[in-house]
Design brief:
5-stranded mixed beta sheet; Enolase-like, domain 1; 3 domains
């Protein structure tokens, strides 16, 4: 779609002062998908992936850090992340491809859409939100004055299309901790249609060190909810904790699923994941309903 209100496109390396009507341009799959009448200028990130990094060493799409954690650049495309996930040997590696496949998008979208764009759009069905929230990811944000702050992915998204981002603030990267990457994971997704948008997506992460269990509910809710239990709960405790935390208005409601159905699927999947991860059998490769 043409953005006929946009009068200028600048290379983000030029460090032009931020002004009203500006927007960061990553992959552009959302920006060009519908009218953006409030926009006047785009700051293009695509040609600065190896130049803007705060350490001046470049924006590598995926970087394994010395402490075993994983850094995903905001400009990392879904295609790049998928290629990495297929060769990665960490226990949590299957989750990468499962979440990439939850896009149900064409190869054109995969080669343009970015991890950062998916997070910053803050749509309930954003699978990169699901992936990084479930693995306890932390976002690195840079303000216009150069100051930095870090915020958990689960706290970055505050509602459907809402996020904790100040005007002109830039998402630089998401870091996934080594402990999460060494965990067993389980994945469940449901859509109303065979190639439909996710109506419920639930991920479980079992810590190999202390046996704690994290269950993250997304797509069914307006924002990701990550539930952490120091020891795996029983069925009733898991059910009651989710129901007590996710309010009636937190279950998402659109043409891709009614709130009652989303709640039912989320609770069902959470219990399936609890059983899968607390047994000693090998985890499933992932299921789609």
């Amino acid at each position: 779609m043409d953005l006929n209100t946009v009068l200028d496109v600048r290379d983000a390396r030029s460090r032009v002062p931020w002004r009203q009507g500006d927007a960061w341009l990553g992959g552009g799959t959302y920006l060009f998908s519908e009218p953006q009448p409030h926009l006047r200028r785009l700051l293009d990130l695509s040609r600065m992936r190896r130049l803007l990094d705060l350490s001046r060493m470049g924006w590598e799409p995926v970087r394994e850090l010395p402490d075993g954690s994983l850094e995903l650049a905001a400009t990392c495309t879904i295609a790049q992340l998928s290629r990495f996930g297929k060769t990665w040997r960490a226990p949590a590696a299957p989750l990468v491809e499962q979440c990439c496949r939850a896009f149900l998008a064409s190869f054109k979208i995969w080669n343009m859409a970015t991890v950062g764009g998916n997070l910053c759009n803050a749509l309930p069905a954003g699978p990169m939100i699901s992936l990084t929230a479930a693995l306890d990811g932390t976002c690195l944000l840079r303000a216009q004055d150069g100051s930095l702050r870090r915020v958990k992915v689960a706290d970055l998204v505050t509602g459907a299309g809402r996020k904790d981002l100040a005007e002109g603030e830039l998402l630089r990267s998401v870091t996934l901790p080594a402990r999460s990457l060494a965990s067993r994971t389980a994945f469940r997704q449901a859509s109303l249609y065979g190639l439909g948008r996710s109506g419920a997506l639930v991920i479980g992460v079992l810590d190999p060190v202390d046996g704690s269990l994290a269950v993250t509910v997304s797509a069914a809710t307006v924002r990701p909810f990550r539930f952490w239990f120091p020891l795996p709960p029983d069925r009733d405790t898991l059910h009651d904790t989710i129901d007590a935390t996710v309010g009636a208005d937190d279950w998402f409601d659109d043409i891709h699923g009614l709130p009652a159905w989303r709640r039912h699927m989320a609770l069902r999947f959470a219990e399936e994941i609890r059983r899968e991860l607390t047994t000693r059998t090998e985890p499933n490769a992932g299921e789609t309903a």
